[in-house]
Amino acid sequence: MFISRVAPGENTVDCSICNQGKIAVSQAALTCVDCAVGKFIAEAGGGGCKQCPSGYWQDGLSSSMCKDCVRGMYQQDSGKTSCEECAKGKCLDLIRNN
Q1: What tens digit of pLDDT does each residue of 24-82 get?
Q2: Measuring CA to CA, which residue among 68, 59, 65, 57 is closest to residue 20?
Q3: What one-character-per-residue DSSP string does 17-48 give?
């Protein structure tokens, strides 16, 4: 998404792309805002924030990517800020090829 800036004393508008992890909340926005925890946006100007998919998490604002759950942890829901500990004998060791 783009943000708009009007130069002082001029009638021109300067549009800028929001950085990774930030979005403009409207087409007339003057500033970029952070993606909330549990969400990310990978590309600058890439549209809206997306929820981290299951198996991933994010606990920081303005994130450009989600974090993998580590061995012994899992997350079955999307948009979460942490992983859950596996019950003994209940999780498989999976290797992701991203």
Answers
A1: 877 777 788 888 999 998 877 767 889 999 999 999 998 989 999 988 888 999 999 99
A2: 65
A3: EPPTTEE-SSTT-SS-EEPPTTEE--STT--S
